Amino acid sequence: MSKIEIYLLLFTDSFVSSLAINTSKEIMVYTIKAFNSANREITIIVVTVASLVANFANYFFGKVLYNIFDRTGIEQQRLTRNNRLLKLAKYNRIFLLLSIIPFFGKFVPVIAGFSKFPMISTILICSGLKFGYYIYLMIM
């Protein structure tokens, strides 16, 4: 396999395993680390970009779920719910820190999209934590 094929396979494996609809783990990252078959820096960059794209997809999946389930049509319930969410808004970033957990972290952007957390901070925090996780994984 050429290096380009390895990195494309790594991107695809990381992207698909980071989607919320999938329950598999990232096998290629561990394989590349075990066999030392690719450059660590490029591996970290490719896996982080795949995680970033998957976080966008998971966030928009959460927004779609919100639009599907929010068909009540009663404005008062929406205002009451928004007031409760505004009181909990200070805990958004603490909740987003749960994305560091390998399996359950892929569901955090979905819940954030469903709960209408700010998109930019959600994507940056989740992807930044995954970046740190990958650096730790590749060094250790």
Summarize the structure in words:
By secondary structure, the protein is mostly helical. It has one domain. 72% of the residues lie in helices and 0% in strands. It has seven helices and no strands. Helix 3 runs parallel beside helix 6 and helix 6 runs antiparallel to helix 7. The longest helix has 30 residues. It is elongated. The two termini are 26 Å apart. Keywords: Membrane, Transmembrane, Transmembrane helix. This is DedA family protein.
What keyword list fits this structure?
single chain, 140 residues, mainly alpha
> What fraction of residues sit in β-strands?
under 5%
- Overall geometry comes to elongated
Helix content: over 70%
How many alpha or pi helices? 7
The low-confidence parts are none
**Largest sheet descriptor:** none
Query: Pairing-aware structural class of the strands and helices?
Result: mainly alpha
Mean pLDDT: 80
Transmembrane segments: 42-61, 94-114, 120-139
Organism: Candidatus Trichorickettsia mobilis
Keywords: Membrane, Transmembrane, Transmembrane helix
Protein name: DedA family protein
